[in-house]
Amino acid sequence: MSTDLQWLLIRKYNSFLVKKVPEGPIFSKEPGNLVNLHSHKYSGLANSKTIDIQSSESGLQITTRKTKTSPHAVRSARTTASVRNRSGGRRALGVVASVAKRGYRPDLRAAALGRSSALLAAQKEKKASPPKKVRGKKAAAFFG
């Protein structure tokens, strides 16, 4: 079945749609949708080539779908690359960018980089704020 026909079938009704505001944007929670917008370009269900980036306990999981696999294939139809937390942000962004550079959905490169950097920022531990210094009259009263 062609991807255009699949999109026409699932465009209006699927279980991943999120319609919060009646006249606002329509979001989607489907796997493989990098920006969570309901459109044919970013759809993880209607496209034969998808990139899915998710966070896990060990780091980032980057999953791509193999295009020409049979549904009855013995091996999985997906390829997974993982980047550990300790590898750093530049390594993770390099792995994500290399997927797009190889010709696998180069139109999704910016979205994939944005998704991976957002997930890396969310995984970072927040630094504790330093204690506030007492200044002016309060410092003179405190130390004096």
Which descriptors apply to this entry?
single chain, 16% strand, 3-stranded antiparallel β-sheet, 30% helix, two-stranded antiparallel sheet, 144 residues, alpha+beta, 4 helices
Regions with pLDDT < 50 over 5+ consecutive residues? none
Placed side by side, the strands forming the largest sheet appear as 3-4-5
Task: Indicate the percent of residues in helices.
Answer: 25-40%
DSSP helical segment count = 4
Total DSSP E strands: 5
- Overall pLDDT score: 84
Through-space gap between termini: 82 Å
Q: Which structural class fits the helix and strand makeup? A: alpha+beta
- Topology as H/E string? HEEEEEHHH
Which word captures the global form? Answer: elongated
Radius of gyration: 22 Å
Q: Please outline the major beta sheet.
A: 3 strands, antiparallel
- Give the amount of beta strand, in percent: 15-25%
Structure description:
α2 runs antiparallel to α3 (109-123). The strands form 2 sheets. A 3-stranded antiparallel sheet has the order 3-4-5, covered by helices on one side. The protein has a two-stranded antiparallel ribbon with strand order 1-2. It has 144 residues and is α+β, with helices and mostly antiparallel strands. The chain is 30% helix and 16% strand.
Structure summary:
With 144 residues, this protein is α+β, with helices and mostly antiparallel strands. It is 30% helix and 16% strand. Helix 2 packs antiparallel against helix 3.
